Amino acid sequence: MTLSSKSRASLFRYYSSCGCNNKYAFITYNPTLIFSRTKTSNPVYKRKLDLSEYSIDKIRNFSIIAHVDHGKSTLADRLLELTGVIKADKANKQILDKLQVEKERGITVKAQTASLFYEYKGKKHLLNLIDTPGHVDFHYEVKRSLAACQGAILLVDANEGVQAQTLANFYLAFELDLPIIPVINKIDLKVAKPEVVVQQLNTLFDITPDQIIKISAKLGTGVDEVLKAIVERIPCPQVTSGSDKATQVPFKGLLFDSHYDRFRGVVASVAVKEGQISAGDKILSLQTKKKYDVQEVGVMSPDGVPISRLYEGQVGYIIANMKKAKDALIGDTLCLAEHPVDPLPGFKPAQAMVFAGLFPADQSEFSSLQDAITKLTLNDSSVEVNSDHSAALGQGFRLGFLGLLHMDVFEQRLRQEFHINAIVTAPNVPYKVKVKGAKNIKFYGGEVVTVLNPCHLPPLSIIEEIQEPLVLGTIIVPDCYLGDLVSLSMKYRGVQVEQSYIDDTRIMFKVVFPLNEIIVTFFDELKSVTSGYGSFDYEDYGYKTGNLVKLDIYVHNVIIEELTSLVHVTKVEDRGRELCLKLKEHLSRQQFEYTIRAAINQRFIAKETVKAYRKDVTARVKSGHDMARKKLLLDRQKEGKARLRLAGKVPVKKDVLMKVLRK
Ligand SMILES: Nc1nc2c(ncn2[C@@H]2O[C@H](COP(=O)(O)OP(=O)(O)OP(=O)(O)O)[C@@H](O)[C@H]2O)c(=O)[nH]1
After folding, report:
1. Is the dihedral of CA 390, 379, 407, 140 positive or negative?
2. Does one domain contain both 146 and 291?
3. Ligand 1 atom, smallest distance to 133 CA
4. What CATH number corresponds to the domain at position 383?
5. At a CB cut-off of 8 Å and minimum separation 6, what does 561 contact?
6. Same domain, 150 and 209
7. pLDDT, tens digit, for every residue of 317-334?
8. Residue 94: CB within 6 Å of ligand 1?
9. What is the pTM of this model?
10. Which of 67, 73, 166 to mutate to test the pocket of ligand 1 (most atoms within 8 A of CB)?
11. With contact defined as beta carbons under 8 Å apart, do 474 and 168 qualify?
């Protein structure tokens, strides 16, 4: 069915009058219409999709996993082209990276699905691809994507070889018992060393050379081999009911991802484990116990294509009037309202690792900031939101992120998509504080209190111990940097637990670090001491009692709460001195002299003095010999300054805080 331009125009007017001003959305509102986009390069849209022709043995669900920049999204582009989902075009670059921040930074931050239609040995196959992010902060995305798959392509750069995230991602797939197709990418590079990578894959993962496919995702070389391997080596989805009975078995689906469409609410990505689902069905969320009417089901190819029915084994999306991101809980099981089922195992919720305060630059913008955070978290449910207040910055929020890049990306999206200029305070990690005394335990609601903001630390007298979060870091470096790496690890309080060669020249280290030490500068320093060759990945390693102290900064005898931090006892003096010096550099002089001091439990460990402005009050005394008059004027000035010093305040403005907080 195609629409005449007249009926298109009237439809557009109709949907515009309903408040829908998205030029694509008016077409997608009606599931019976065939999608049309301004860029109609997509042959899929020329026909209506009916997935009933793909029996379960013709379906493959797979992810592409790899270290950062090893070419996942570029391979996805070639797969989309080869299967005719998009037209081959030099302009196709990381098509599945849809967010502006992804395009600008050239990284994937959100996993994306795409359905490909591939004819193999005369039979049509439906291949559901999930392109995953590579950066350590987004491991959680990879983990849940893999739960919707039966296999994974492990991509390794032919020049860089196996890196820290290659290992982490391999083990994620391995733990789920997924078949892995090892692919060496970028063989077109002059510096490519595919044979070295073959040796690494063999040493580390027991992968034999005959299993490995060598490609250039950029040029398309060898990509057809990857398509064949997907069909041959990845099994079709396992379903308990068997394909014939699919129609009689009640629907059971795993909600593995979601995003928020401002016109249509939550779009939930679902892997259909049993039965089938179509628009008009009433579904139940087993976690929230809420019921919804399904308005549309479809597949991403690469944008949403509505279809009449999603069948057992398939991966697609459901739109069911879910208004909030919290309605679509990742890992939830969806079923038909009248046929409740046993829940699927689901996932552990994402754990925020890094917390920071977010304040509006101007308090009048507080509600705009609140609104923007609510909207952004609809698309990113892994952000933890708490309210916060600061004496200098006013009302704001304390947000929890999966890592520093995640925090950066969130802040960039606030700026770009909502035009909000927020002040982000220094990142810190969640500490666990053990309090003593039955009365205190009752007051804090438990023996262990989680402290997200160091200035909210319970009084020292009732603290039994402070525990800090640890991570197990994996570092891969050429062995010539061995000495530099050992010193670097020690500087960041790392404890080495393992060391082994992954090929003739490169070493893998496992080091336990306090998370607080590595969140800001460690990665940059690692890159710098290893001339860019070192790679780093980390995973949660629990909590350990740390010899930590609370560092307070006083400006003219007033504590600046935003600068309060928990620091290891061996580093606290350096940190105290550094903060005092930075403040001195950025604070303005006053009519009176004042001090900037760093203190542990009110014991001062560092001090800087900011001198007063000097005004020559004796300049007006004409006679150079009137010493008595000069003395009188100088004494008066001294008294005035002493009075000011007592009553005067030193404003620590937001821009000064920002400069000091940036490490
Ligand atoms: N020479 C060459 N460059 C490639 C090839 N494949 C990818 N690239 C380049 O490598 C860079 C990273 O590619 P991406 O596809 O964005 O890598 P990615 O793994 O998706 O990156 P993240 O999502 O950030 O982890 C881009 O500049 C690509 O053009 C290849 O086969 N040969």
Report:
1. positive
2. no
3. 23
4. 3.30.70.870
5. 390, 391, 392, 455
6. yes
7. 999 988 776 788 888 899
8. yes
9. 0.74
10. 73
11. yes
* CATH code of the domain in which 504 resides: 3.30.70.240
In sequence order, which residues have a C-beta less than 8 Å from that of residue 482 and are 6 or more positions away? 507
Ligand 1: centre distance to CA 411 (Å): 25
Q: Which residue's alpha carbon is at the smallest distance from atom 23 of ligand 1?
A: 108
DSSP state letters, 354-418: EEEEEEESSGGGHHHHHHHHHHHHHH-TT-EEEEEEETTTEEEEEEEESSHHHHHHHHHHHHHHH
Q: Classify residue 467: in a domain, yes or no.
A: yes
Q: Is residue 331 part of a domain?
A: yes
Q: Are 581 and 567 in contact (CB under 8 A)?
A: no
Are residues 458 and 515 located together in one domain of the fold?
Answer: yes
Structural domain count, the chain: 5
- State yes or no: 535 annotated in a binding site: no
Is the CB of 217 within 6 Å of ligand 1? yes
Ligand 1 pocket check for 73: Cβ under 6 Å: yes
Determine if residue 135 is labeled as part of a ligand binding site: yes
The answer to whether position 349 is within a domain reads: no
Q: Are residues 62 and 211 in the same domain?
A: yes
Question: Quick one: which atom of ligand 1 is closest to the CA of 132?
Answer: 23
Q: In which domain, by residue range, is 597 found?
A: 550-661
Nearest residue (CA) to ligand 1, atom 24? 107
- Rounded mean pLDDT, 121-132: 89
| Residues 384-412 pLDDT 10s | 898 888 777 788 999 999 888 888 889 88
Question: What ipTM did this prediction achieve?
Answer: 0.98
pLDDT tens profile 443-501: 888 889 999 888 888 988 889 999 999 999 999 998 899 899 999 999 999 999 999 99
How far does the centroid of ligand 1 lie from the alpha carbon of residue 543, in Å? Answer: 36
User: Is residue 13 in a domain?
Assistant: no
Question: Does residue 194 line the site of ligand 1, with CB under 6 A?
Answer: no
